[in-house]
Amino acid sequence: MQWLQFKLKQGEDVSCVVMDEDGFTEDVDCDDDNSNINPAVIEIPDNGIDEDCDGEDLISSSTHNLNNMHVEIFPNPTTYYNHVNVKGTLNYSIRLLNMDGNIVMEKEIPQRMNVKELSNGIYLLIIIDDDTNHFNTGKISILK
To answer: Boundaries of CATH 2.60.40.10 in the chain?
Structure first.
């Protein structure tokens, strides 16, 4: 058990307990009994465990439904390339945004996305049906 102490105002101390000694308090640590689970760890895909406390397990292949079409993005996480597989006919484009909301990639009807120049991290993927402007979102993790 680890105690963290903070000074809010002069003469006013606040203490909180970090049970697993990983440095994260219980308000952000989703499993305060396990030091391998906290917001700073890299998520292990497809194991049914939310290691990074974002509320979900990372899935290695992302399948999205957009106007009754199935769009599959794989592998996820990736190092160099993501492949895009569309079952059906879909006139679409993708946007990839970093966590600051900046567009880092924009392509029309890609079959493969080259992400080797991008930094490690989690990116927001937006798949847009160019005929209807409907869209779907997902996450892509880049690990090198």
So the answer is: 62-142
